C-alpha cells in the first residue's frame, strides 16, 4: 500500500484542492425558434460546440453569422477553404431556428456563403448525444441534478438527449487552487505521498532480504 501510495493518490485525486459542482439544465425548444432553460436565470454559456450562437455567451463567429443571415449571404473572392472552414456544422438564429452554412461557387473564382434553414428535428438528431453514450459524470448530473468532482468534466456544454427531453450539463460552481509549484495538490501532500512511497519500497526490499536469509 505504501509503495503504491503515489499512484493511489493520483488516481483518486486525494488532496486535490480543486472542486467543481456540475448541474443539469433541461432545454426546451419551441416552434417560434426560441428555447428556454430549466435553470433560469442561471444560463449555461454554451449548449453545444457544434452550433454557433447556441447559448448565453456570444462569440465572434456568432456575430459574423448573424450579420450574414441578416444580409442574406455574402460573396467572397479569395481561397474558399480559408474562409469557410469552421468548427461547427450549424448556426442558431434566435426566433428562427437552426441553419446550416452553405457555399456556392460563382463566376471568376468567387464563392457565395449563406445559411440554409434546417428542420429542428434534423439538427437536434445530429448534434445531441444520447444519454447512453455520455460519461458517468454527465449521466449522474442529468439523472440526479448535480455531480461533484475534483476535475473538469468532459462532455459539459454539450447537448444530451434523454428520451424526448434535452439537457446540457454546466459548471454551476467551482474552486480552482493553483499552487506555486505548478501542481494542483499542495506541496505537503506531494511530499507526503512520495515519502510514503519510499518507505513502502524500503519495507518491500527489507522483507525480500529477510526471506532470502531464511532460505
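Sequence proposed for the structure above (215 residues):
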Amino acid at each position: 500500500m505504501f509503495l503504491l501510495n503515489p499512484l493511489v493518490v493520483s488516481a483518486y485525486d486525494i488532496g486535490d484542492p480543486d472542486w467543481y459542482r456540475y448541474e443539469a439544465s433541461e432545454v426546451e425548444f419551441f416552434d417560434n425558434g426560441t428555447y428556454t432553460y430549466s435553470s433560469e436565470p442561471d444560463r449555461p454559456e454554451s449548449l453545444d460546440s457544434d452550433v454557433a450562437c447556441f447559448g448565453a455567451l456570444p462569440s465572434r463567429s456568432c456575430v459574423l453569422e448573424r450579420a450574414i443571415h441578416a444580409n442574406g449571404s455574402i460573396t467572397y473572392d479569395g481561397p474558399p477553404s480559408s474562409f469557410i472552414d469552421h468548427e461547427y456544422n450549424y448556426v442558431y438564429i434566435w426566433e428562427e431556428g437552426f441553419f446550416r452554412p452553405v457555399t456556392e461557387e460563382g463566376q471568376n473564382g468567387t464563392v457565395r456563403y449563406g445559411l440554409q434553414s434546417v428542420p429542428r428535428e434534423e439538427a437536434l438528431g445530429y448534434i445531441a448525444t444520447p444519454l447512453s453514450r455520455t460519461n458517468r459524470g454527465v449521466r449522474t448530473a442529468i439523472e440526479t441534478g448535480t455531480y461533484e468532482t475534483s476535475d473538469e468534466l468532459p462532455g459539459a456544454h454539450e447537448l444530451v438527449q434523454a428520451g424526448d427531453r434535452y439537457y446540457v450539463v454546466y459548471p454551476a460552481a467551482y474552486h480552482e487552487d493553483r499552487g506555486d509549484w505548478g501542481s494542483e495538490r499542495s506541496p505537503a501532500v506531494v511530499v507526503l505521498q512520495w515519502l510514503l512511497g519510499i518507505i513502502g519500497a524500503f519495507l518491500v526490499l527489507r522483507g525480500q532480504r529477510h526471506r532470502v536469509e531464511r532460505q
